[in-house]
Amino acid sequence: MNSFIELFHKFGFTTLSINSEDPKIIVVGSEHTQDRFKKEEEMSQLINELANQNQVNLYFEGHNLTKEEVKEFIPTTSKFVKEQPNIIFNDNLNQLQKISLNYRFLSEAKYEDQIPYFNKKIAENDVEREKTMLKDPKLGILPNYHKKPDQIHIQSVGTNHAKFGLFETELKNIPHTILIPTAETTKNIVERKNNYFPQEPLDNWTRIIHELGYIGKNKKIYNNINAKFGLGNWLRGHIFDGKVLSYDDALKLYEKSYLRFFKTHPDELEWLTETASEVYDNSLTNIASGLDYSIQETDSAHLQDIAIRRCLKNLGQEFKGDHPIEVRGYKSEGYCLNPGQIKFMDPEKILDSCKESWWKKGSIEHFWQDNKILLVRPSKMILKPEYLSEEGLYLQFNKKDYYLMKCDEENTLYFRKGRDVRKAFNENRNKFKKIDQNFMTIEEVISRKFFGHTI
After folding, report:
1. Which of 77, 113, 210, 233 has the fewest Cβ atoms within 10 Å of its own Cβ atom?
2. Quick one: pLDDT at residue 51?
3. Rounded Cα gap, residues 21 and 5, in angstroms
4. Is residue 196, in this structure, part of any structural domain at all?
């Protein structure tokens, strides 16, 4: 193994990608450079060890500090800076200022639809910074590499920059490796403890349909569900053709639908492969997820970009274009590949909630959202039978949350808002029978056989 790579491994870095056993360019993703040098003695030791290596050129993300300023800012490396002429701070100050401004606007945003706009602007600024680090005639690592191809060139950047994919794309024809802190390889794995099904049988668990919406990493939603049913008493899943699916099994249907689309739409497939160098959903950082659905580095999940990459691999295709394509809202270049636009493989098996939304009926997103279910231990479903109608039995959890049990689906509940149920009762009293019962478990509800009542 290359001695430099061994050195970085020694200091807690893991190889993210590599195309040569003797790389000439090494991209190292870490915390923001100045902070790490200032706070972490280990990084200073690493710099000093590199200082002893001959023919090493170091490039740092951050401000173009003078060597005197560097001595002040990073006193532990002042000896190295004095003796080492090949040190370059190659960031784009203009883009840094724009990022600072956009972050301020983002923090002050008053409307929800402003947030994606400023996030996009920040991502665009970051891409321009990466182009400077890579290609600037004086500061860029590539021009300097071509001037000194026999020397080692080490670019230090923030971890997210290393994971963007732009460095890997631009360096693909040059011997290189990209490293990130070992902790980062597991830090951004999505927390999926509520997606894994336990070993115990789930046949008797109550299935709740149309209660779950977007969750992502929203701790408030998790906390609310825990408060309602108790930690460890509920699971997330999907349902398809009457069968409960794990998260991974649901993803297979999601991906299979994309694959069917590409097989039946060769023109769209050709456009994608010839135009795009990569795809992403909510951030350019999505690119680093590659083919792994579990790597979710942003607050909201991104699945379509990973599904598309996996389909291209399945079809023996690859990206040949010159820029990454966003697959997101109607203004994005890849909107035609948005999961809300692509037909689901079996649309008649979608459990339509009849809610108006941005996705098309029968689309992949329609399946993903409306076939989402909660599985709850029956003993934790304490409900009050309140109304019987031709549609089924309405059960009250609290004034806000009601559930509908249909006569032929006693193990399945459909979520309803309390105000909607009461409104329907008041407007159609002749179609409802009010039931005077106390709260009871779902098991007791089933045993009472309320469907024997007449309306």
Report:
1. 113
2. 58
3. 9
4. no
Least confident of 83-87, 117-121, 123-127, 190-194: 190-194
Quick one: 57 and 166 in the same domain? yes
Angle 114-135/93-107 helices, nearest 10 degrees? 170
- Of the candidate ranges 49-63, 218-232, 274-288, the one whose mean pLDDT is the lowest: 49-63
Task: Please give the Cα distance from 388 to 437 (Å, whole number).
Answer: 12
Tally of CB atoms within 10 A around 333? 15
280 forms beta bridges with 326
CB burial readout 357-375, b (16+ within 10 A) else e: eebbeebbbbbbbbbbbbb
Residues 6+ apart with CB under 8 A from 451: 388, 393, 407
Q: Could you tell me if 375 and 169 are in contact, meaning their C-beta atoms sit under 8 angstroms apart?
A: no
Q: Which two tokens stand for residue 229?
A: 């049913």
pLDDT at 455 over 80: no
Domain that holds residue 305: 247-368
Residues recorded for the chain: 455
Same domain for 9 and 135, yes or no, is yes
pLDDT tens-digit map of 323-359? 999 999 999 999 999 999 999 999 999 998 888 889 9
**Residues 262-269: what's their mean pLDDT?**
97
Taking CA atoms, 165 is separated from 77, 143, 159, 185, in Å, by: 30, 19, 11, 15
Residue type, 11: F
Mean pLDDT of 270-296: 92
Of 382, 417, 388, 389, the residue nearest 403 (C-alpha): 417
Q: CA–CA distance from 49 to each of 29, 53, 148, 230, 375 (Å)?
A: 18, 7, 21, 52, 55
Q: Does any domain span residue 194?
A: no
Total domains, the chain:
3
Residue 375's closest CA among 189, 200, 190? 200
pLDDT at 274 (0 to 100): 97
Q: Is residue 30 located within the same domain as residue 155? A: yes
